[in-house]
Design brief:
mainly beta, 3-stranded antiparallel beta sheet, two-stranded antiparallel sheet, 1 helix, 5 strands
Length: 106
C-alpha cells in the first residue's frame, strides 16, 4: 500500500500528504512509536530499539533534577515495526483538512 513509502524516512524528513490521502499537503515527521509502545527518539540513528541512559526528552520525564534512567527507545528511522507516526503540516493544500478527513470516513 501507499504507507510503505514512508519506510526508511527519518524524524525531520518531509513527505507528500497524498501518500496518506491528504492531497496537496506536505508533512514533516516529528516522532512516533513502535508496535510495543516504545517512542521514537531523534538522537538514536537507525530503525533499531536500544536501552539508553536518558536524563530528559522524548520517552522520559525525570522526577528530580539530574535524575537519569535507562529506558527502551526506538531509533529515528521508520521501519515495519512503527505503528504510529506524529507529523506537523509544513504546507497546506487547497482543501481544508476537515473536508479531506470526512471524505475518507464516508
Amino acid at each position: 500500500s501507499q504507507e510503505r513509502k514512508l519506510i526508511g524516512l527519518a524524524i525531520g524528513d518531509e513527505f507528500e500528504g497524498s501518500i496518506i490521502g491528504l492531497k496537496g499537503y506536505k508533512l514533516k515527521i516529528t516522532g512516533g512509536s513502535d508496535k510495543d509502545g516504545f517512542p521514537m527518539r531523534k538522537d538514536i540513528p537507525g530503525p533499531r530499539r536500544v536501552r539508553s541512559l536518558v536524563s530528559a526528552g522524548p520517552g522520559y520525564r525525570p522526577k528530580r533534577k539530574g535524575e537519569r534512567r535507562r529506558k527502551t527507545l526506538r531509533g529515528n528511522v521508520i521501519s515495519e515495526d512503527i505503528v504510529q507516526i506524529n507529523t506537523v503540516i509544513t504546507k497546506r493544500g487547497d482543501k481544508p483538512l476537515e473536508e479531506l478527513i470526512s471524505a475518507e470516513e464516508e
